[in-house]
Amino acid sequence: MRKRGGVAVAAMVLVLGVVGTAAQAQPVYKWVDADGKTHYGSQPPPAKQDAEPMKLHNHNGTSGGAGSASSKGGTAGKTAGATEYNPDGTKKIPKDVAEFGEALKGSLGKVDSKQVPLNCAAAVDNVHYQADQMLQVGQKNVRDGYMTQAAFDATAPKIREAKGKYSVSDCQGASGNKKSFYQCMSSSNNHVMGCDKQFKH
Known about the structure:
Blueprint: H1 3-16, E1 29-32, E2 38-41, E3 55-57, E4 63-65, H2 95-108, H3 120-143, H4 149-164, H5 168-172, H6 176-185, H7 192-198
Antiparallel strand pairs: 1-2, 3-4
């Protein structure tokens, strides 16, 4: 998205630190190498093909991967033990969820190496869908106590404004990096964070 919009998108994903925006992104894998170091990536290395997508427990206690239907619009789940709170009164995001959020953010910043032809209708649909998903996740996190209403209210208008700047007619008249951005977003495997990072406009 444009610089201002891209910042808003990144801010929302960073603040949420949860699933939801990954509905169209590649899964995030976690594995440990021979030296005991933990790694994250959109694909496991050849030697670790048994690595599985990271999973979280949602608020119903069921688990869901980054691309599963159960995680769509999901949020940080309850973990065993007493709930901890931040100074602003919001619930602390469990360590495993925060870890997943960071890995997810990294995955969303990458684009699929397989290019698809420019499809303005698909690109705009993907941009709008992902923006709506971020807004829905934000609202759910406010309801569940993981985000303040003030934080959501400060970020949501920027996402809505950025979303409104993308249309089929704008795509059809685009050139340079903006056209490349639309082509990048023509693939349902890509996220606005990755396409914006690669094709600043």
